[in-house]
Amino acid sequence: MYLFPPGSQRTPMGNSYAGQLRTTRFEEVLHNSIEASLRSNIVVPRPVFSQLYLEAEQPLAHNGRTDNDDEDDEEGSETNSPPILYQMKPPPDGCCTTDGFCQAGRDLRLSSLASETLDVPPGFMLVGLKSPSLPDSLLVCAVDHRFLPDERGHNALLGFSGNCMGCGEKGFRYFTDFANHINLKLSTQPKKQKHLKYHLYRNNQGVLVKGAPICWRGHDGRIRQIGPSLSVGHATSDEQSPNLPLMHPSHTPGSYTGDTRRNTSHANGMPQIADSAHPLTNGHHAIPPVTKQVINHSGPGRPSTIGTQTNAGPPKKRHKGWSPESASSGVLENTVKMPLSSSTLSSSTVHPVTTTGARLDTATPLSSSQRSLTTLSPSGLSVAVPDQLLHTCGLQPVIFKGHGPLPRLTGNVSEVLVSSLLQSCYLSSQTLPRVYQHYGPSPIQPLSTEMQILLTVYYLVQLGPDQVPLIEDLEQIFMRSWRESHLSEIRQNQQPQTPGSQGRHYGIEASTLPGLPQNLGLPHQQPLTPSQLPWLAQLAASSCGEGVVVLGEQLGSLAQGLQLMFSKLMEGGFQNTNYAVVIVTASGQETQSCVVVTGKHQCRALAESMFSPSEGLREINHQLSSGEAQELVQFCNSLGQDGDMDSLLDSATLDSNEPSPLSSSQESAEDKNVKSTQSSKDSHSPKERFLTSKETCSEYSVEWREVRPIQLAVARKLLSHVCAIADSSTQNLDLVSFDRVSFLILVPPSEVTFQQTVLHLWSSGVLQELGSLDQDCGSQRDAERFVVKMDQSAQVQIDSLIQEARSNSYTLYILVHDHAHWDISSASYRNSDSSLGLVDQLLNSRQIRDAPNILILHVTSFPFALQTQFTRISPYNEIHWPSSFSNDVDLYHERTRYFGVSELLESTSSGSSLPLMRYDSSFESMASALEERFPKLHSAVIRTTVLIHHYCLALMAVSGRISGSHNLHKHTSVETLGIVQSLLSAAQQCPAHHGHMVLLRIPSLALAAWAHRRLSRVRRQLGLEDNFEIILGNPGQPLNIGQSFIDQIKIWLKIQEADWIPRTYLELEALPCILILSGAEPLGESLPRSLKYCDLRVISCSYLQRTTLEQELGLAAYLLKAESRSPHNPGPGSDLLESDAEKLSSSDNEEEEGQDNENSPLSSNQPLQSSPGIGAKDTHSTQSSMSPKAPKSTKASTPSPSRAQTQLPHQFSSQAFLYPQPSLHHPSQSQTQTYTQSQQIPSQNQPVPQTHSQHYFHQVPQPQLQQPLPPTQPRRHPSKSTSSGSLSPRSSSPHLSCSWARGVSRPPSVLLPRSLYDIITANDGSGLPRCTSFLPHMSVAWASSFRPLLSKMMTCTEQSLYYRQWTVPRSYHMDSSNRTEGRSDNFHPRRLLLSGPPQVGKTGAYLHFLGILARMLIRLMEVDIYNEEEINFNAQTDGVQYSQAHALWPNPDIMKTMPFDYTVHDPKYDDISLVYCPGYKPASDANIVRQEDVCLRRRTTRIKLSKYAAFNTYHHCEHCHLYLGFNPRYQMYESSLHAFTFTHLRLGEEIQLYFIIPKSKEHYFSFSQPGGQLEGMRLPLATDRSADCIKSPIFTPTTGRHEHGLFNLYHAMDGVSHLHILVVKEYEMAVYKKYWPNHILLVLPAIFNGAGIGAAHFLIKELSYHNLELERSRRLEGGGPAGDVWPFIILADDSCVMWNAVDLDTRIGPVEHAVSLKQVLQHMEACPDLAHYGLCGMRKWSSRGLTAPTQKDPFSRGHLHDFLLLNIDQSQNVQYDQNRFTCHDVDFTLRLHSAGLLVCRFNNFSVMKKQIAIGGYRTFIIKTKMTDVPTSVGPSQYICAPDSKHLFLATPAQLLLEKYLQHTSHKLFPLSTKNYEHPVLSVDCYLNLGPEVTVCFVSSRPHSINICTTGLLFSGLLLCFADAFVTPSFLKNFTFLKGATLCVISADRSSLRQTVGRLELEEEWRFRLSDEFQTANTKEDRPLFFLTGKHI
Question: What pTM, to 2 d.p., does this model score?
Answer without folding.
Answer: 0.65
